[in-house]
């Protein structure tokens, strides 16, 4: 039996010194456990999402210096870890110094190179280059190394023969880096290559961002792989939060054991466990977690969001939060979410009503604050907004054609209200409160730019901006369950969603947002989340075929919502024009968000500011349908 | 003599239909010229910077449909063009349908495949993956194709034998796509391969974004290549503007001829020429532009900025602009820049003084507007700001510890002023004026976050945000030259730069920004622009060695600015902390900018929000120097 400790390090991106401190602690722990092998995740010194910090040579030198510290700490313990490896003599395709996303093994203060390898470490073979991933931007792959040496990848990629302390034995182990085990779309299959070289255990070092339902896919995929190859696998992931600017990702730290039968035989709890002791029986291939009787529950939407919000605040060294609460669902869910990870006095809830805000929602905002036991203020902004409107409406402008007066329309006055709330009140209050203020946007709004720049789209963090409206409600219910009581009043779930910026949005008259969320959530989702993204051409074809509901996954009947084809088309074009038009400009200036879906706005979905486009096939279909 | 027309298409990204219309016009023009070959640039139907639009299958089908239209239009004319090629049977590494960045040739309504090729087109071999470039995210390279077929790139990459209408001859031509000719850092050298296959002319189809001095590098590089290989080259670039969200790039459309002696023998004028007639003498290898007696002048900073601003406005279908003018240099340069591309009545200049704004700057703002003959309004904001401060200062908050009062500091009041200007006044006025409002930030400010989110960092476009402060002055002088008179008053160049947000920033007392621009421009530049970016460790080492001035390129003596090492270190850490700390958060929400430098913020420099880091080597050096 081999004792393997995995350290699901809580990585601080870019902070090598701090990550080393935690590595050192885990080395001490592993020794105490008399572990033979200690495994750290991919890029455990630098962090994985650090942007273009890779082109600072001083940072690279620091990565190398601390790499040596890990080697020096390997007395009587085999340590495996991920770090950048640098070949100062060679360059990458960008002309900068050559870097590899590498895995190292050390024992008794010496590196253990892979068997028959030209390099003292192994190199990530498959470099992901989709969604938020940019590995080939920075790193040279094992496949490129093989090609450069006119060698096959089969002869280049090698397993490690790991010394087993307290014995005279070794273990032949295939060490993989994250994507190396997600090989279904690549021409190269690293696990197959390593299996053919007698690997008796795969260890995958990962920095795999959490998104909803991704672990289910991983379990399916890795189970199938180990079953097929008859080699068990130990998967080790990071914890913590890292970001690429626009998108903040959490890492679940769910290390896992897969046996040769394809069974998930052990898994660490999400977000919480710094380290775990796995037991491996080389003779049977059995791999499990010590003392684990049942698998932990998968993260819920609520637990993932809580971890995300807490991690983000920690990452920016802030623990005080100002939240504008309108009495609607989005701000209520944000308030409850932050409250679930912060002491009550660290929140300041602010209601900023005008005459358009109903007594209903004002009352609900106050009720929410009382339920959450948070400081609460109401600052009516009607007079300020009125003063601004009076000052600007009919403003005379002298041009070469004579004097004209600039009119303010009701729509412009709505935006003035929204900006007054955020840029005047919340921004100032957050500074006074020594905290941040939140952006409470959801993904539905962000998709179509239903929000005001420098208004409700402002804030330091948009925790819920990757959640569709239906997920906002789901999170609200999960939060009430978490609190064990109705902190978000039931009426907030049932009231008509509304911006309450004009008489046309009066909730008490059942007026509100121009969206039928039960349908539009799914329509908009089809624009962004499927691997092959839908365009109006696809949607209109499905509509014509009668398959629209199934294709987009809505449970309401689109055909009864839009009694005529022309109503369907007008609605489709309205939202497509916004989605691919002005909403892009708004998203460029939107706050960072907590990425949780299979495709989030920001660095995951990369967007250019362009004009909406309709294909010829769409225009033809439209003409056929409308009979013009 | 072979007549070749190049079309420097003004590409509208994502608008295939519109690009086709322009292609059709150029085909007509080429026929009128009795040209034998017509060359379009890389990705001439789709545009090059279109973000993740590549994962919309409907868009790909549209690219294919219009590709056929070009083929069908090739009667008696050999047409060469760049477009995406799709292999619907295969997938890329992301599992999506396989796409190539390809070059096509057609004659008499049929594709002309490369000689001895498995494919009816050629495929880009070198896919750039640095700065703003993401080619491998979308496209499979010729090198990957070769590897997949277990063939060498040498046997895979093939030239075209192009029919020459009006003759029975053909021309063996190596067609390259952009980066294929920028091969200095790659292990593969496409031009050498094609030269060995008897190519008598290289034609490079490009979508190469303009940045300052990049063309000089291109001339050096391509001259050296053609001289070495003894094959002349025709280089064809796009015109127009494309963006990736945060960064807007202009394309200069400077097509060029390089003879075998390495001479730049012909070049089209920047930004303006839709098409040009080149003459190629295959017997001598001579290549030139018809009727060109001298090379055009290179773009100036001013002409590039004017093209950028005009193109951006056109791209968002806006032609009216509101500019906040303070009387300082940044807003003055922006006002003159926009005025140089817009009719006078399409600008609205707005001064929004408080008691901190001097008569000097208020007068200069008014003078500027008079010089530019633009509509101008002054809207004092002091009372509004005072009302906000009165409402928020000492705001009582009831927490579980009792009641506390939230204080407003003078610094918070500065930010309130800045937000009041932009989010309250300019945002509303721009809507009333049916236009946008500008962000007048410069790169120095953006580097350290010296600006207020939702305040002076707001706006639809930050035209000058990729210019260091010294370049802002340069652009100002170039604009006055362009106007042929001092539209920007001389005093605006000489006044102390200041935000005028407090008594500590009184320009008439010589008080202002906390930066010594002559030094800090270059310090901050070293953090971002060199290919190997500098860190405090490098800067402190240079300081100690006495080589700091040369390394960062400042003309002022850093050693006399900072009389003691500890003063130097305090200054260095102050700006590094901002640059790599809070300024990143501000940049994430900053407006799109006009990218013009060798490294711009946004999608070119990808940044994660992290805490500032100092390497061990820095800390050690600091300790040595400070003797502690």
TrEMBL record, chains A, B:
MF-aspect GO terms: ATP binding; glutaminase activity; NAD+ synthase (glutamine-hydrolyzing) activity
Catalytic reaction annotation: deamido-NAD(+) + L-glutamine + ATP + H2O = L-glutamate + AMP + diphosphate + NAD(+) + H(+)
GO biological process: NAD+ biosynthetic process
Protein's pathway: Cofactor biosynthesis; NAD(+) biosynthesis; NAD(+) from deamido-NAD(+) (L-Gln route): step 1/1
Keywords associated with the record: ATP-binding, Ligase, NAD, Nucleotide-binding
Coiled coil region boundaries: none
Entry-linked InterPro entries: C-N_Hydrolase, C-N_Hydrolase_sf, Gln-dep_NAD_synthase, NAD/GMP_synthase, NAD_synthase, Rossmann-like_a/b/a_fold
SUPFAM superfamilies assigned to the protein according to its UniProt record, in alphabetical order: Adenine nucleotide alpha hydrolases-like, Carbon-nitrogen hydrolase
GO CC annotations, alphabetized: cytoplasm
Boundaries of every CN hydrolase domain copy: 2-301
EC number(s) recorded for this UniProt protein: 6.3.5.1
PANTHER family: NH 3 /GLUTAMINE-DEPENDENT NAD + SYNTHETASE, NH(3)-DEPENDENT NAD(+) SYNTHETASE
Family the entry assigns: Belongs to the NAD synthetase family.
Name of the protein: Glutamine-dependent NAD(+) synthetase
Organism in which the protein naturally occurs: Allisonella histaminiformans
